[in-house]
User: Which sequence fits this backbone?
């Protein structure tokens, strides 16, 4: 009996309307169900008749007859509204209902639920809407926000067959227990005047829910589930995790409530790191906030790896612990999907689908994990990603039987993905280390990808870790010349001379067994390394061409003459040029040879001619400068050179063990003039070479 709606629901599913007097009589009899109510009491309390009027009236008998026609299958043999002759009337076997119990609205502040609510409001009234998302993302909360304030029925879906679900729906909407089966429920629901029915946690009985909704298409159904129902009429609304800003605000708000005062700022880097590890799941954030009276953001982040930290016994049974929520999804997986989830726990971040299929052991298990929202679907980069909370749960499962025995096979599949594009630098590093002894060629390719990274949204790997991997690859594969060259040219060693010397030695060892082309690349890498680290480039004998290799440290250039044969001249007297062409020119000149100290140098003197340099010095206005400075005083460069004091040494990087290439970004200084001193000359220092 729906007394609020003035309706009576029969066992066959049909309904009958009630008058106000019939409703009042049934309500009074229902309040005293099982007891015989005297006629005088009913006249006085229900109909408002006096004793004298009641003796003459037949109104009560007429009302009883009408009710029996509406309630009883056989009005002549009533089973519910019975008469005790000489005493009164008794109501049995019926219960009065006022419709479904009202759905309570959430009392705390909401974060990030506007988008799903707007999507639900845009759906047709008779649509079947399914709110899907991972466990703890807030699907039930969104449904409560929708149902609060209206005439909605809330049904907690039980595990079991269709009959158990129908019984739960009948009890929630206020129908009699005699209504059985989807057909009877279909006939009964439209007359209840409900705004809709919410089926919460439908993932435990997906088949039964789908069968029920296929038969009852009249009312508006809203289903919360971790998986889709697979109905044609279904409209899926995805409830996504919170954004970083909303997640930080929710965590700090709940933590302040638990701690009784301010806990942390949403802009705190420790808070942002914490919400990233909790995947933006509202349940995980609220369970973490329960630890706020004891732990701050940094301490809480350090404790997250311990089992049982995200637990709050004060919550409802379904949401007491995050591990229990994930375990509920685990039990819904078939063995192949469970094995795939354990295997995918080796990944530290997003991974390309090809890597996921290889490690999971097939496409179907990976698809099942995405369907159950245990692995994030493809993002804008086309990659999948495990939830950090789910990955931690699966990693703990992987340590125990029977999953621990699968680890060698998982490592082999993981190592085979080391050089796949789209892998994060951290996963590439770990997979490359596993591949060092399983597949050295793949490890070498992975090391090159880490040493020469392409633009990526992932945080870069620390250079020290990439260099450590390169050293391991070179140790296992001495012929990995490209890895050695790429590591040397990384340019991130700074001023750590020990690392610089170690890598230069590796280059020397690699060049000793390299081809000429490879030797040239290694020489370039060594020069770039020295330039980036601020060290003096050195030339390995192995890097020299075979035609000029004369010893262990031979140079490709002729050594400069001894200083004794190239002494610095400080005399200001301009000596005559000894060049044959100059001598012939002087002899043929009608004016004879010039002896003026300001005469121009011989224009035909060869480069480095001592007479040409001497005449240039004689033309200089600063005769006290070193006579070895090249150039003419009549040019700006010569005047700049002449104005500098003599350094006494030629730049060491030009006279030492010469390299086949100059440091990257430097300006190559000219060679010392022939005939000039090797220990004297202009101070033309390269930008990347120390004094």
Assistant:
């Amino acid at each position: 009996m729906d007394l609020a709606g003035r309706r009576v629901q029969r066992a066959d599913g049909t309904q009958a309307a009630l008058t106000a007097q019939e409703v009042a009589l049934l309500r009074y009899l229902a309040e005293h169900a099982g007891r015989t109510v005297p006629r005088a009491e009913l006249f006085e309390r229900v109909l408002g008749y006096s004793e004298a009027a009641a003796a003459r009236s037949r109104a009560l008998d007429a009302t009883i007859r009408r009710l029996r026609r509406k309630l009883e299958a056989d009005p002549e043999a009533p089973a519910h509204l019975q008469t005790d002759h000489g005493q009164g009337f008794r109501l049995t076997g019926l219960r009065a209902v006022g419709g479904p119990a009202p759905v309570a609205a959430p009392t705390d502040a909401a974060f990030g639920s506007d988008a799903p609510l707007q999507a639900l409001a845009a759906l047709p009234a008779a649509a079947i809407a399914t709110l899907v998302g991972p466990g703890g993302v807030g699907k039930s909360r969104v449904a409560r926000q929708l149902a609060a304030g209206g005439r909605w029925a809330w049904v907690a879906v039980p595990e079991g067959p269709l009959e158990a679900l129908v019984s739960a729906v009948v009890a929630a909407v206020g129908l009699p227990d005699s209504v059985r089966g989807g057909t009877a429920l279909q006939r009964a629901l439209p007359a209840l005047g409900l705004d809709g029915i919410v089926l919460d946690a439908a993932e435990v009985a997906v088949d039964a829910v789908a069968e029920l909704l296929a038969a009852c298409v009249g009312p508006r159904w809203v289903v919360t589930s971790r998986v889709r129902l697979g109905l044609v009429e279904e409209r899926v609304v995805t409830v996504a995790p919170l954004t970083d800003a909303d997640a930080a605000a929710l965590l700090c708000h709940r933590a302040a409530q638990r701690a009784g005062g301010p806990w942390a700022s949403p802009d705190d880097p420790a808070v942002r790191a914490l919400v990233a590890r909790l995947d933006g799941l509202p349940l995980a954030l609220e369970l973490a906030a329960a630890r706020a009276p004891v732990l701050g953001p940094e301490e809480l982040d350090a404790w997250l790896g311990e089992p049982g930290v995200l637990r709050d016994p004060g919550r409802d049974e379904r949401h007491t612990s995050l591990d229990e929520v994930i375990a509920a999804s685990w039990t819904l997986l078939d063995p192949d999907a469970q094995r795939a989830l354990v295997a995918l726990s080796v990944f530290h971040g997003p991974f390309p689908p090809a890597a996921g299929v290889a490690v999971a052991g097939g496409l179907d298990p990976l698809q099942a994990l995405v369907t159950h929202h245990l692995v994030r679907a493809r993002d804008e980069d086309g990659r999948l990603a495990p939830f950090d909370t789910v990955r931690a749960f699966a990693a703990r499962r992987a340590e125990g039987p029977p999953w621990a025995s699968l680890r060698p096979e998982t490592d082999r599949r993981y190592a085979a993905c080391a050089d796949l594009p789209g892998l994060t630098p951290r996963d590439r590093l770990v997979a490359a280390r596993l591949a060092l002894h399983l597949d050295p060629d793949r490890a070498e390719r992975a090391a090159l990808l880490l040493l020469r990274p392409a633009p990526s949204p992932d945080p870069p790997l620390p250079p020290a870790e990439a260099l450590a991997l390169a050293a391991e690859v070179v140790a296992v594969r001495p012929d990995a010349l490209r890895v050695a060259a790429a590591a040397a040219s990384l340019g991130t060693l700074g001023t750590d001379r020990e690392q610089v010397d170690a890598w230069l030695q590796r280059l020397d060892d690699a060049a000793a067994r390299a081809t000429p082309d490879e030797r040239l690349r290694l020489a370039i890498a060594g020069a770039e390394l020295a330039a980036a680290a601020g060290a003096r480039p050195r030339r390995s004998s192995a890097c020299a061409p075979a035609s000029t290799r004369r010893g262990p440290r031979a140079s490709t250039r002729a050594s400069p003459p001894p200083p004794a044969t190239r002494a610095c001249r400080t005399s200001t007297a301009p000596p005559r040029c000894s060049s044959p062409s100059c001598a012939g020119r002087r002899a043929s000149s009608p004016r004879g040879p010039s002896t003026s100290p300001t005469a121009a140098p011989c224009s035909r003197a060869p480069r480095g001619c001592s007479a040409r340099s001497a005449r240039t010095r004689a033309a200089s206005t600063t005769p006290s400068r070193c006579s070895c400075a090249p150039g003419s005083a009549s040019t700006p460069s010569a005047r700049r050179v002449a104005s500098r004091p003599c350094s006494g040494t030629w730049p060491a990087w030009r006279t030492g063990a010469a390299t086949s290439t100059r440091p990257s970004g430097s300006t190559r200084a000219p060679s010392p003039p022939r005939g000039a001193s090797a220990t004297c000359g202009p101070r033309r220092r390269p930008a990347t070479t120390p004094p």
Residues 260 and 293 are 8 Å apart (CA to CA). The radius of gyration is 45 Å.
